[in-house]
Amino acid sequence: MTRQTAPLGSRAPVLAMSHIEKTFNGDVVALKDMNLSVNDGDFISLLGPSGCGKSTALRLIAGLLQPTSGTIRWAGGQAAGDLGIVFQEPTLMPWATVAQNVWLPFRLRGQSYNSVRDDILEALRLVGLEKFQNAYPRELSGGMKMRVSIARAMVTKPRLILMDEPFAALDEITRFKLNNDLLKLKEKIGCTVIFVTHSVFESVFLSDRIVVMAARPGRVIRELHVDTPYPRAEAFRTSAEYTAHTREASAALHQAMELAA
Questions:
Q1: Are the C-beta atoms of residues 74 and 14 closer than 8 Å to each other?
Q2: What DSSP designation does 37 have?
Q3: Reported pTM
Q4: Using CA atoms, how far apart are residues 97 and 53, in angstroms rounded to an integer?
Q5: 20 has pLDDT over 90
Q6: Has residue 1 got a pLDDT over 50?
Q7: Is the pLDDT of residue 2 over 80?
Q8: Following DSSP, what letter does each residue of 74-94 receive, concatenated?
Q9: Under CATH, which architecture does the 1-82+160-261 domain have?
Q10: Span 181-193, pLDDT tens digits
Q11: Domain extents in the chain
Q12: What is the CA radius of gyration of the chain?
């Protein structure tokens, strides 16, 4: 069943990053005064040049790093299963089947395969891989491996899914297809997504909020809204509206690169 997402400006809060600073080795400032609000149903792209701290921000939200200063607060507190993560590489266990790989988040919580089998198969159905549940990663294409990683991230129905350039290594045709499929998946399960990308075109197609970051130090310099309603089809990619949004995002990215220089 499709879950309706509230309009921008009327969505319930999920988490907030407030005045975040992250310093490595005592003197390398990866992020400084990073502020970001995330609301239920948002699709946020973090867009910026290499070294601007996009992936660092994701790792802070995931709890894989701790901020040097500032706070990250979940609305209502964070519970187990609130977060799903998709990395740049699928990071699948080669000795495990597709279904066993998707089972991993439940397994780490002590839940048996049989007790969550229906959830695993439903997640695989949503990404179009239900017929490959018994296959091994070596038998899959790059795009199929990434679908398994996405299924694993959303199988627990998390409040928030973090995606760190998941399609960057794929060919353009596969990337476009997975962009389309990701939006269909978001429409079906109503998840909230933070998506790291270097691509202006990808950020405009996927997002309703584009957060543009500059480097040295990493910080937010601008936020753009893409108000084209979902679902978005191929026709959107060739529309005048899409062109206008990509032009605006491209100008903001150039500004970020100039500030970094």
A1: yes
A2: E
A3: 0.92
A4: 34
A5: yes
A6: no
A7: no
A8: ETT---TTSEEEE-SS----T
A9: 3-Layer(aba) Sandwich (3.40)
A10: 999 888 888 889 9
A11: 1-82+160-261, 91-157
A12: 18
